[in-house]
Design goal:
Helix content is 29%, strand content 20%. It is α+β, with helices and mostly antiparallel strands. The strands form 3 sheets. A 5-stranded antiparallel beta sheet has the order 4-5-8-6-7. Pfam families: CO_deh_flav_C, FAD_binding_5.
Length: 326
Amino acid sequence: MRPFAYTRVSDTGAALAAGRRGGRYIAGGTTLVDLMRETVEQPDELVDISSLELREVATTAGGALRIGALVTMAEAAAHLEVRTNFPVISQALELSASAQLRNMATIGGNIMQRTRCTYFRDVSAACNKRRPGTGCAALDGHNRSHAILGGSDSCVATHASDVAVAFAALEATVEVLGPDGQRSVPFAEFLLRPGDTPEREHALRPGELITAVEIPAHPRPLRSGYLKVRDRQSYEFALTSAAVALHVQGGVIRAAKVAAGGVGTVPWKLSAVEVRLVGQRPSESLWAEAAEAAADGARSLQHNGFKVDLLKRTVQRQLRIVGGNK
């Protein structure tokens, strides 16, 4: 690990000042410290923001759920309002990591975590995300775990976060604070597809700090849940996953929010699936028909073609779990 400066701040003003001079924000450190050990990340300065007052989970006057950026994964998953109103978030968090990691890792850090692509973490391998212009070893390498949606000729690495899939489905916004003040970024625009610039992973501007994630009010009743398919049930990343939220009233689906993980370079909103669901009556045939659209636009690689059918089956199964099997 390369030597670095360490600064601990107690207010957002000091944090932003450190961010303006190029300091890297750190709280739980469950991802960044590992990357520093592996020399993938080599920041000159770490800015410890763990003392900032960004730990509240609350419902706004408009009915939105606001989760502070420094709320730990464990705290968010256990919070009564989260578990009651958005079980898809609690389930995604509880399936994300070991209990020890969930006790340390924060919501803001989780959505900012970098890919688990083995080539990204191997400093001897070609990786455009780690070193632009060097190539993507995964394209012709072992790519079983890589993306079938949103990839490019520059990068096919998947985004690892589970709760980000729930946030994408629920159309959350990321609240940020920076040198130019506060702003809200729709979650769909916060994490960036690789395109020709895979080193640009998010919409944060230099020096900006995530303060909260806000989930808008959704119609009630809202049934929701998260399904994660992986090679083993213990701590493992998703091969595919599905976050589903359905508002069913009078026997008809009035609203549907669906996203997938483990298959995209970013959490993948399944708009085509949602369109097929709205206005229909829950049924086994509807789940199967809607799930067929889950892999629209997929481009498989040499070793991950199985993800196309697995994604469809994952979405169909979770629609059945959340919506019923009438």
